[in-house]
Amino acid sequence: MNAVEVRGATKVFSTRRAEVRALDAVDLTVADGEFVSLIGPSGCGKSTLLRLIADLDAPTAGEVDVFGMAARKARLEHAYGIAFQQSGLLPWRTVRQNVELPLQLHGTAAAARRARSTELLDLVGLAEFAEQHPDQLSGGMQQRVAIARALAEHPRLLLMDEPFGALDEMTRERLQGELRRIVGETGAAVVFVTHSIPEAVYLSDRVVVMSPRPGRITDVVDVERRAMDGADDIREADAFFASVTAVREALHGREGAAPGARGVETR
Ligand SMILES: Nc1ncnc2c1ncn2[C@@H]1O[C@H](COP(=O)(O)OP(=O)(O)OP(=O)(O)O)[C@@H](O)[C@H]1O
């Protein structure tokens, strides 16, 4: 069964002054266990598409299914975890209490919560920070806590909106490596919004390229995952550069512009 199926999704925002057509008849399928990134110029509707999948917004037309369920049912059944650019941690709770929050909200007993948070903090390498508060952690560590929290209920799907967007380049590359390892270990499917072409290629099985408003999917680049994963350093592999070039060309074909479609990082 597919993790995500979006069929003919259109989203029109009606504001007092005008109507904004953010998405226009978008079709997207994400297989179980697949890592798909969404990339495109600023304002093309990437976050809107993610919010439709998460049932944080409803499509104006079209349908969204998550593991064969309507998006709303999937949300109620906690079929996915979410992580955004702002980690969204609660400052008055410890790291462990933040990770346990979804479990607590959904009635998991204290002992089971503790066992799960211990396991998750090990997974993201933060076991010794369990009793600290978020403001005692670096931005990268806070993002790792947010990822641990998103994984708390064993979701088979993770929805991530620029989770590393606010981090410095070195931290970002390290967390990209960690995310690949974590996703490999959990087998979760991921829909990942990013502005960075190398980040999308490093992480993904497929990179979905969107057009400026109204957002449509204009290209889908299959990343040469197998060739890349065999390399000593993925970012130095020929297959990595080939896929980066393919995504860049897909974006520029759309823009008809010189490198650097607005809002897309090429570094
Ligand atoms: N709640 C809203 N009300 C009105 N317009 C909205 C709303 N949310 C998004 N939009 C508009 O829809 C379009 C798509 O927004 P969205 O945030 O999905 O783009 P994006 O591709 O994620 O952008 P960025 O890369 O800059 O984060 C934009 O023009 C935005 O202004």
From TrEMBL:
SMART domains: AAA
UniProtKB keywords: ATP-binding, Nucleotide-binding, Transport
Boundaries of every ABC transporter domain copy: 4-237
SUPFAM superfamilies documented for this protein: P-loop containing nucleoside triphosphate hydrolases
GO molecular function: ATP binding
Pfam families linked to this entry: ABC_tran (PF00005)
Protein name as it appears in the record: ABC transporter ATP-binding protein
Lineage: Bacteria, Bacillati, Actinomycetota, Actinomycetes, Micrococcales
